[in-house]
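Bug #77: duplicate submission created two jobs. Keeping one. Sequence:
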Amino acid sequence: MRKRSRTDLMRRLARSGAVAGYLFLAPALLLVLVFRVWPGLQAFPYAFTDWTGAGAAAPVGWGNFAEMLRDGVFWAALRNNVFLSLAVPFWVLASLALALLIHDRTPGWRFFRGAFFLPSVLSPVIVGTLFGAILRADGPLNEGLRSIGLGALARDWLGDPAAALPVMTLVILWGIFGLGVIFFLAGLAAVPPEIFESARLDGARGWSMLAGVVAPSLRHVLEFWTVNLVVWSFTSLFAFVYVMTRGGPGYATMLVEFQLFQQAFEFNRMGYACALGSALFLLVFGVVLLQLRLMTAEDA
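Kept job's structure:
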């Protein structure tokens, strides 16, 4: 009888804990529903209209989507988004390698832990403005190259169509990889130290330690961070583009989300912007579903 009452008490406590958790989540969930989910759902009907954002919306059927398929700017922007998504493995490996160095108490690890995370605290606008000044034709980077006799390498890094997107990719990496380091450090802290000690006794070092021990131990953290970065590469880099290049030179750094902004707020083509947003949502949703499907298949 006493055992049953104790079990009932534990169940009540578990239920009350779950309720408390949902109550803590409720304000954030409400904000997401009101300012993200509901506007997103409203955009779908307008994707089939010719609408300026004011007045009546004229139905055009699939006209906006047909125009999108013929829009060279859209395909250039999508190609740039895909380029950024292909850089995700590099972003993940950089964060993981640095987290492992800090976890192993490399000399100066306390300083580097804060230094690597600091860029993640800064606003993308600040990061973009800072690097925009550093990378301009008369900026500190080119002056430094000229001072050491490497003036031939100096260029307008964000004004060169061949260099602008790769350079911006590195800036984005600098701006967000610190958050990945924190995630991986939290994951490493949860791994029993005996696993790493046994691996070292077996001679695991460097790449063999990273690929054979660390990656399997942090598999779920790796999956979580990878999915987040893929979503970000399509939906969360607007501020970097707006501050650093505004999609130029030409369309070398144009992204779909920035094209959406231009169509909506510079050209007053809200209907076409909603079509772009709907297509981007469906694309990202499909990519995430594919990733989750592959991860689930590996668990089976």
